[in-house]
Amino acid sequence: MTLAPGHESVEGAREDAPGILLTAGPPGGGCPYLRGATADQTNSQEGQRLRALGPAPVVELPGGVQARVVVDPGLAERLSAGPHVSRDAARHWPGFREGTRSVDGIIAAWIGTHNALNSYGEDHRQLRAPIAAALTRRRVEAMAPVIELIVHDVLDELNGLGAPEKIDLVEFYALPIPHRVITHLLGVPAQHLPAFSAAAAGLFDTSASAEDVGRSMGAVLAILDQLVVSAREHPEDNLVGDLVRAADASESPLSDTELRDQLMLIIIAGTETTVHAIGTLLVHLLGHPDQLALVTSGLASMEAALRESLRLRPPIAAVPLRFAVRQFQDARSGERFEEGEPILIHLAGANTDPETYADPEHFDVQRADGSRNLAFGHGPHVCPGAALATSEVVIAVTRFLDRYPDARLAVAPEDLPEPSSFISNGYTSIPGRLA
Ligand code: HEM
After folding, report:
1. Which of 179, 261, 319, 370 holds its CA 20 to 30 A away from the CA of 356?
2. What residues does 316 pair with on adjacent strands?
3. Which domain covers residue 184, as residue numbers?
4. 85 forms bridges with which residues in the sheet?
5. What is the pLDDT of residues 392-426, one digit of tens each?
6. Does residue 8 belong to any structural domain of this protein?
7. d(CA 300, CA 83)
8. What are the two backbone dihedrals, phi and then psi, of residue 256, each rounded to the nearest 5 degrees?
9. Residue by residue, what is the 3-state secondary structure of the chain?
10. Whether the CB of 224 sits within 6 Å of ligand 1
């Protein structure tokens, strides 16, 4: 069982409410640790356990940070969209900029970079605009044939492996596709790809030490520095070129470092998430032959199946971190937030809220109450890569099922390994049989 760094055992676990097993926080502190997926719970299940404590209970995160974890979908939407909550730690988390607050490890890695995700108000609009300009409908549409080719190549490589008894569908299918798509989009030289993949995966591991996270971050940033320098000299017709042109055209042009940090964000936000989205949709469909039949017969679309899959197991269970800009009270729920209080929107918990979704843990591609959900976020920070990701996953899973109509999982879905994380949510390995 993996816990947050420094919390080596579950001894001291307590019953906070009937049926709720949470790990007790520090002596005297009393709030539970947010453990993320472990051998005995998924992120959604942890979300539901926390839900029994209220719409936004206090939890402890790695590094001793106490945060309100928001598991109620309505409150999550209102906080994500409203002006009272910021993602900018430097401006809205007292002590962070001054260095009087000690934050390390995974939380520091997520909030320490100045990029679109970690900004607020006008600053956010300026940093996001070049990214949105580089992920336009035109570029996403232009990518569709490229994605088809990439998927075709990866399927041929699978074929080339012969007829192995079992194959890991993450390593040989879900993982190469988003990495090749992002590499193509950015124009990353192929020789940098393995370093990218390893370092990006390290950034999502909430059980990694502060040193390991720092090392992963450094490796990715070094590669991106090179990309920015060459794009400044020769901006090409790729995402980096678009980003450089849009950034130069803005009222306050971005520095090389700011550009690099936006690229870092796109890579981190766009690869591991899509790997999990492909893997999870495969698991949901192969694990539910009745639902797969609805899709293959055309009674439900692959897009609807993806929405439902993202609802049930969003690739990002929670994205660190937001802060209350001022003291305020949410009128609907009555929840009160103190100025500077850290807030973690728990997408996995909100997406399986029993008051919003009937039988929330059930995978139903024709869900009567709809599969509208928070997997891509909500409000000004809503994922600008959602259309690209949807196109990638739909093409990848559709073509896989066309090529291997008799494919099946080699182990039960509940036995598949998951990242020990409250951020990254999916499967690290999916043993499958192709025929
Ligand atoms: C299925 C795959 C994906 C999922 C589930 C996903 C999910 C998310 C979520 C939850 C957020 C944070 C929203 C918030 O805090 O309110 C986000 C932000 C972001 N995503 Fe995605 N994402 C995916 C794919 C992509 C792709 C393919 C790209 C780009 C190539 C991308 C780029 C970004 C960026 C740049 C942000 C930050 C936007 C901002 O803060 O303004 N994402 N994504």
Report:
1. 319
2. 424
3. 14-433
4. 324
5. 999 999 999 999 999 999 999 999 999 989 999 99
6. no
7. 38
8. -60, -40
9. CCCCCCCCCCCCCEECCCCCEECCCCCCCCCCECCCCECCECHHHHHHHHHCCCCCCEEEEHHHEEEEEECCHHHHHHHHHCCCEECCHHHHCCCCCCCCCCCCHHHHHHHCCCCCCCCCHHHHHHHHHHHHHHCCHHHHHHHHHHHHHHHHHHHHHHHHCCCCCCEEHHHHHHCHHHHHHHHHHHCCCHHHHHHHHHHHHHHCCCCCCHHHHHHHHHHHHHHHHHHHHHHHHCCCCCHHHHHHHHHHHCCCCCCHHHHHHHHHHHHHHHCHHHHHHHHHHHHHHHCCHHHHHHHHCCCCCHHHHHHHHHHHCCCECECCCEEECCCEECCCCCCEECCCCEEEEEHHHHCCCCCCCCCCCCCCCCCCCCCCCCCCCCHHHCCCCHHHHHHHHHHHHHHHHHHCCCCEECCCHHHCCCCCCCCECCCCCCEEECC
10. no
CA distance 142 to 433: 33
CA dist 85 and 83 (Å) reads 6
Which ligand 1 atom lies nearest to the CA of residue 128?
41
Pairing mode, if any, of strands 167-168 and 431-433? antiparallel
Q: Is residue 2 part of a domain?
A: no
Segment 146-154 mean pLDDT: 97
Is residue 5 in a domain? Answer: no
Is any ligand 1 atom within 6 A of the Cβ of residue 383? yes
> What total of structural domains would you count in the chain?
1
User: Residue for token digits 């790997």?
Assistant: 275
Residue 7 in domain:
no
Q: Ligand 1 centroid to 8 CA: how many Å?
A: 32
Nearest CA to ligand 1 atom 6: 376
Contact (Cβ atoms closer than 8 angstroms) between residue 424 and residue 315? yes
Residue to probe by mutation, ligand 1, list 180, 267, 273, most atoms within 8 Å of CB: 273
Q: Residue 183: is its pLDDT beyond 50?
A: yes
Distance between CA atoms of 416 and 286, rounded to whole angstroms? 13
pLDDT tens-digit map of 341-399: 999 999 999 999 999 999 999 999 999 877 789 999 999 999 999 999 999 999 999 99
Assess whether the previous peptide bond of 321 is cis (omega < 30° from 0).
Answer: yes
CA of 97 to the centre of ligand 1 (A): 25
Q: Single out the residue of 321, 311, 314 nearest to residue 59, CA to CA.
A: 321
Name, in order, each residue with C-beta under 8 angstroms of 9's C-beta and a sequence gap of 6 or more. 3
pLDDT tens column, 241-250: 888 887 777 7
